[in-house]
Amino acid sequence: MASCSPLLLLAVLLAVSSSPSLVPVAAQYPGDWLTHITVYMHETVSGRHATMLRSVQSPLGGNSMFGTVNVLDNELRDGPDRWASNLVGRFQGLFVGSGVVSPPGLMTSMNVVFTAGKYNGSTLALLGPVLDFEAPVERSLVGGTGRFRMARGYSVMTSVRNYTTPDSVVLVDKIDLYAKIRYQEITLTPPEKFTRESLFDE
Ligand SMILES: *[C@@H]1O[C@H](CO)[C@@H](O)[C@H](O)[C@H]1NC(C)=O
Ligand SMILES: *[C@@H]1O[C@H](CO)[C@@H](O)[C@H](O)[C@H]1NC(C)=O
Are 33 and 181 within 8 A, CB to CB? Predict the structure, then answer.
């Protein structure tokens, strides 16, 4: 990097910042691709078209969060504006009130399911806590299917705006997904040479 001219660096930075969503931006490790994908989650919190609901109340009653179970099936779009963006997938999963002492944590388990674009049919699995309701939420990206087989990395979710529809508030969060994909050239047919392992000693 020391020999890199400032102009070249600027060109690289500009290319990265203007690259559209859903495009791998850098290969950083031999044999690995580091992919940065940005999607926008649109969550309708109430009303007839709610995409998130509390399915189990806390047995402790009152306002207790500990033991609650919530499920969601939110829209994923390629932009923050509902009327000027494309649907690219769903953000499906659950979050559980799992903090009995302060900080009142949530445990979240989410799948990013692509339903359009170059990753249509592929999914990413995210796992992680919410420790602070005001801060960006970081999750481990623990794996994937389809074009994301063998993926690993992390995601950062940040609230960007809220808007209202006639029967609900909709929360919009930007989700940056950073994934190392070991075989970018992955074909969807498994390699021919797998060693079949015995599940018992022979
Ligand atoms: C996504 O893939 C499914 C299954 O192959 C296909 O039916 C559907 O039309 C695709 N959607 C888009 C938007 O390309
Ligand atoms: C959107 O609403 C949520 C929940 O009320 C709030 O936590 C968040 O800060 C709001 N985001 C913005 C960008 O105003």
Answer: yes
Domain ranges in the chain are 41-181
Cα 20 to averaged position of ligand 1 atoms, centre (Å): 21
Q: Evaluate whether 77 touches 40 at the Cβ level (below 8 Å).
A: yes
Across 105-115, b (16+ Cβ under 10 Å) vs e yields bbebebbbbbe
Contact 125, 114 (CB under 8 A): no
* CATH topology for the 41-181 domain: AOC barrel-like (2.40.480)
**For residue range 64-122, what is the model confidence (pLDDT) as tens digits?**
999 999 999 999 999 999 999 999 999 999 999 999 886 768 999 999 999 999 899 99
Ligand 1 centroid–CA 88 distance in Å is 11
SS3 at position 17: helix
121 lines ligand 1 (CB under 6 A): yes
